[in-house]
Amino acid sequence: MSAEEEFEKLVVVLATTHDGVAGQMFGKKCIKINNKAGIALFKDCIVFKLPEKPHSEAISLEGSCLWDPSGKGRAMKEWVQLPLEHKSKCQRPPAQAGGFVFSAKAK
């Protein structure tokens, strides 16, 4: 399954479970909850805005990096770009805005 297809699945799930809506951020597709972007689609990756602990777990995975949507060396510190191979480590987000969950221990 492609990153685009996985992203569209997330849109449907988050629309029904968290009032998520598809939108745009920096010209890229994103998902917003309570008007705050928390997930984006970029190239063949899904990008997540993560708090400190899950952020450090996510950034340690092979192929992951800080997201630089402009490609001009201005990465966004809270956002981690994850290759699709790590999709099994992403769990459903809790109801609060911006609370997207990532666990490197998830199977």
User: Cα-atom Rg, whole angstroms?
Assistant: 13 Å
Class of secondary structure makeup: alpha+beta
What is the average per-residue confidence, as pLDDT, rounded to a whole number?
82
Trace the largest sheet across and list its strands: 1-2-3-4-6-5
Beta strands, count: 6
Low-confidence stretches: 92-107
Percent of sequence in beta strands: 25-35%
Q: Kindly report how far apart the N and C termini lie.
A: 18 Å
Q: Give a quick account of the main beta sheet: strands, pairing sense, barrel closure.
A: 6 strands, antiparallel
Percent helix range:
10-25%
Tertiary shape: globular
Please write the string of helix (H) and strand (E) elements.
HEEEEHEE
Total number of domains: 1
The tally of helices reads 2
Describe this protein's structure.
- The protein has 2 helices and 6 strands.
- The model is unreliable at 92-107 (pLDDT under 50).
- The protein has one domain (3-89).
- A 6-stranded antiparallel β-sheet has the order 1-2-3-4-6-5, covered by helices on one side.
- The chain is globular and about 30 Å long.
- 22% of the residues lie in helices and 32% in strands.
Task: List descriptors.
107 residues; alpha+beta; six-stranded antiparallel β-sheet; globular
Ordered list of secondary-structure elements with their pairings:
Layout: H1 3-18, E1 21-25, E2 28-33, E3 36-42, E4 45-49, H2 52-59, E5 65-67, E6 76-83
